[in-house]
């Protein structure tokens, strides 16, 4: 075997997402390898590192990011740990792929943006992977082409088979609907200015205390109405759909087509059980795009500004949800670095 | 040719809908014939009657309804003329198929209900033809079966290629969304308690002064949220879709399938140009059901109560639309005749 | 109730198809009524007639067709009885809707055509109801438009959930594939010149002695290849599909769309259990078209020639099936009456 | 940048497929890099190598395969050059991904198999990329599960927008239908025993002398009938579909779903323009699977036997096409190495 220059990646956090990124970088992505894994659970980090040639285990992110064979960072630790990890990466001027959320609230996201602005160039790609999904990309291309005229409304469905027992009402906004916030902003190239949350009588599938499903409406500064059905315990599978209604036509993505079966009085197909199956290609493409851009010396994709804007809309959304009324979103003026 | 007993029908109003009912009764429906046509335009009535054996032309509804060969009435005149026609039909105790709206407002609808209650039995079937559409019927049967659990939300799309120049913002509610009001009430077997109307920035297709499309949300007394996209100038065709989101699954109707064509880089099919093509079978089935019930001595289908409830929700809707806020619907207690 | 001129129809044969036509004429069709029912089982005829005002029961077709109140005839008796019934109808110059097959073989079909030619005008519409199916009509219109270029191939699927125990291999051709023979001839406006029947290893669902499914290929005098999958015991439902492959595109009908349901890990819809559900509208339209043409004094739809051609292709098909080789179809020159 | 062990790949042939593999190995595949490119056009090879770090250009395959930094080989030269390249690779005991066809005829394929058997272990993966397509994989999994019962028939559509002017009738079999030969063998795990080729009147799109489309039927040793519509000049796009008809159900893949657009009186989506768009993921997966297996020291995927069997069926197919009759396929007994 010959030797070849590749991007050495440190993966911080080795939970579900982090471990999946380790596998992806090792087995799927071209041009990168995992040179460091970081977890506060030293044993876990060591076990994961053991299976990868040339990979070192760390418990301290700062130590990992200082290592010679670390060229770039994936942050996949819990949200509250993101700010510290990002600031450390900035100290070493390392490119970062930061899993969403950028940080848990708008205030900390602002601090991250300020630090990045002091560096004078973008270092962060936020892990909004839907922007790398083939269907969303096709929808984006169609909207950008203007072929159907200006977008007027965006209808979204976001359905999960079920959620873990500790899932709270705020998480419906912060963990689930946050994806629609980002894709709406990205598809439309507009900011969200207000948010309303409506609640039908809860499903019998909803755990005690979780009003599930909910119906969320965003308004944008371009006058588009975006509605989102979020149903976290629908039982039948994972389904993400979007329909853009434009002046002269509509476009819809997310129908679970593929193989069509006729059997036992029914025609149809299967629904993905979870986001992993639905978005596996998007994750692969996201990470490859980040590696490719990094190797070219660029930073692309969703920025810290996108992470901040999502956090600000989430904060308004949680208030709207609690108070049962339309709530306006407040954003700072967009810094020059993110224009 | 032999002679055979058939239902003699007077058709009041010979505009687009009335003329179509004349054709339907004459050529499609089994067991009925048109024995009278009524229009204030005497010439128009005479021309129409001339083509039908045994059919008399009238300008005065009262004269037509007094005729010996009139066994039942279709009211297809403009809405403001409905109340008088219905009261006259009640005088002769004639069964009526009354095109929607029952009357133009809740107050007049109340008067019609009072008169019908004085008769002591139902005489009116209101022309909400979607209840006779094969797809809506299938959706209703599925919801009633409980197979998917309790309904939680109902998403609706209502798109017209275009509308006539005199179409007003109130007509979006009164003429278009009124159909979703009725199907929501019927599908769910619940009353609508509040209505909110939201407006994105209007389409470039919308005529000056018409904020089109709009997004309407109903709340029901069973806790279901019903949202309706109404887009009256979408250019691409006529499309009516509904998706019921239930506890354990969803069901959607209104995809314009049929013949699928592959050609010139595209797969797909055609979209109905207007409601006539989309709902022709529903109209045929509605009228046949009315004739059949009448021949059996029964009155079935949407009642005056349904006409009244639609009028009351429309009134709230028009207020909600004008004032930009959630508006509650006020209904009288449901009279015994309509339970 | 008033009296009205309607077409008095005699229905000969009151089995499944005949009884359904009695119901259809009585309850669905406009402009006709059942004035006579004929069955060799006198009791059965009497019971059926008893439920219909002005309807007389007969055991002898000749007596029925001589009655004053019989203006037209539906022949729904077993195939071997068709020739006699048709010849009797010709004696009275009565218009006939004859269920398929016209007669059981080409020789008897020729005799019927000769008798009809002696009358000097068409009297027979053969009951190939697919020509009245909305989807087949759309496909026919598209092919006739030339929009996709000249048709080159026609792929057909013909699937039954199951068949009765007495179903034979010949019936696969004579009772099932005969429909594709007729629609291919009609869609293409071409005659079938040769037929090949291929047999895969039989399904475990096939009863002993029935090689099911089979794969049939027609060649036409216009150079089109038509293939038919006939699978009579597929268990999952009734499915009839056709795809026309033209020079510049293809068009497919028969996908069982309608209501789409998401539930329990699956998206999809239901498949019609049998031909009644799939083709109910086609039967209604077929009979209405026959009544309408008759009231206008015309004879339209599939002619005796179409019945004869189907019989001739069936005969070749049964030989091809038995002998395992391509078999040519022999037709007489088309008489002037049927051009 | 750190150094990392990767598989050094020599790519022989830098035409459309070869150049695409160079790009894939360099930018998409994990764990491999291009260390050599070989083309008889020295300039072309040099230009391609210049853009890749550590890549050497060759005109002589033998020289490339002898290089120290070559660990594995992709053969993408014209078919007649495959045998020599494979034998050279065998001399160095290098794993090979050989684009289809393995060799241009059964006799040369036999020689390759004999040489590989002398090595005593498999070295060749043949480039039948459809086996790596997500939809075909799903169909294969369903058939293998037995959920729908035993397969009885397999209907295939293979449509190209157009073909290059030098495309011959034999190429319809050898270059196009060969894919269906392989997927049929793989999906069913059965050998093809006979082949029939039928020709409708050619499309006006077909160039002079090319009878296009054609309809091909395979019979298998398991009694399955496989039909293939091959239409190489359909103009509307690239479309590959397959429907397996099993005892208790059918399964279909290849509908070009994805984004659904409503516009200008039509619903539908776009059709892939060519095989690159349709099968890009399959190619990526194929090459990654080959790299992964090679790094594990294994050889998986379609074998030389599969290449030989395809060649033998093609030879029978070309005879069947020329002579217009069913032609039997002759295969040697399957050597132990390929069981």
TrEMBL record, chains A, B, C, D:
<dbReference type="InterPro" id="IPR000683">
    <property type="entry name" value="Gfo/Idh/MocA-like_OxRdtase_N"/>
</dbReference>
<protein>
    <recommendedName>
        <fullName>Inositol 2-dehydrogenase</fullName>
        <ecNumber>1.1.1.18</ecNumber>
    </recommendedName>
</protein>
<comment type="similarity">
    <text>Belongs to the Gfo/Idh/MocA family.</text>
</comment>
<dbReference type="Pfam" id="PF22725">
    <property type="entry name" value="GFO_IDH_MocA_C3"/>
</dbReference>
<dbReference type="Pfam" id="PF01408">
    <property type="entry name" value="GFO_IDH_MocA"/>
</dbReference>
<dbReference type="InterPro" id="IPR055170">
    <property type="entry name" value="GFO_IDH_MocA-like_dom"/>
</dbReference>
<comment type="subunit">
    <text>Homotetramer.</text>
</comment>
<dbReference type="InterPro" id="IPR036291">
    <property type="entry name" value="NAD(P)-bd_dom_sf"/>
</dbReference>
<keyword id="KW-0520">NAD</keyword>
<feature type="domain" description="GFO/IDH/MocA-like oxidoreductase">
    <location>
        <begin position="136"/>
        <end position="251"/>
    </location>
</feature>
<dbReference type="InterPro" id="IPR050424">
    <property type="entry name" value="Gfo-Idh-MocA_inositol_DH"/>
</dbReference>
<comment type="function">
    <text>Involved in the oxidation of myo-inositol (MI) to 2-keto-myo-inositol (2KMI or 2-inosose).</text>
</comment>
<feature type="domain" description="Gfo/Idh/MocA-like oxidoreductase N-terminal">
    <location>
        <begin position="8"/>
        <end position="128"/>
    </location>
</feature>
<dbReference type="InterPro" id="IPR023794">
    <property type="entry name" value="MI/DCI_dehydrogenase"/>
</dbReference>
<keyword id="KW-0560">Oxidoreductase</keyword>
């Amino acid at each position: 075997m010959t030797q070849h220059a590749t991007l050495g990646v440190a993966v911080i956090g080795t939970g579900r997402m982090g471990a999946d990124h380790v596998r992806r970088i090792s087995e799927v992505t071209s041009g990168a390898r995992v040179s460091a894994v970081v977890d506060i659970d030293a044993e876990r980090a060591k076990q994961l590192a053991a299976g990868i040639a040339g990979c070192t285990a760390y418990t301290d992110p700062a130590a990992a990011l200082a290592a010679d064979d670390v060229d770039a960072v994936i942050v996949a630790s819990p949200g509250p740990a993101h700010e510290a990890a990002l600031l450390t990466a900035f100290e070493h001027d390392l490119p970062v792929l930061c899993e969403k959320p950028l940080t848990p609230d708008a205030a900390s996201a602002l601090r991250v943006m300020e630090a990045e602005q002091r560096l004078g160039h973008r270092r962060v790609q936020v892990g909004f992977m839907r922007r790398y999904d083939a269907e969303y990309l096709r929808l984006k291309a169609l909207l950008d082409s203007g072929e159907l005229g200006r977008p007027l409304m965006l209808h979204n469905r976001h359905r999960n088979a079920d959620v873990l027992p500790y899932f709270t009402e705020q998480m419906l906004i912060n963990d689930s609907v946050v994806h629609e916030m980002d894709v709406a902003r990205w598809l439309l190239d507009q900011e969200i200015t207000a948010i309303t949350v409506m609640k039908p009588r809860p499903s019998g599938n909803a755990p005690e205390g979780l009003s599930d499903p909910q119906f969320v409406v965003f308004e944008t500064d371009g006058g588009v109405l975006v509605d989102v059905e979020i149903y976290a315990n629908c039982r039948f599978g994972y389904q993400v759909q979007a329909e853009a209604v434009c002046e002269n036509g509509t476009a819809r993505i997310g129908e679970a087509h593929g193989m069509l079966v006729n059997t036992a009085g029914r025609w149809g197909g299967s629904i993905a059980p979870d986001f992993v199956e639905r978005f596996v290609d998007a994750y692969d493409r996201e990470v490859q795009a980040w590696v490719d851009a990094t190797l070219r010396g660029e930073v692309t994709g969703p920025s810290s500004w996108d992470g901040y804007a999502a956090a600000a809309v989430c904060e308004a959304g949680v208030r709207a949800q609690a108070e049962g009324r339309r709530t306006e979103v407040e954003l700072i003026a967009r810094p020059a670095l993110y224009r």
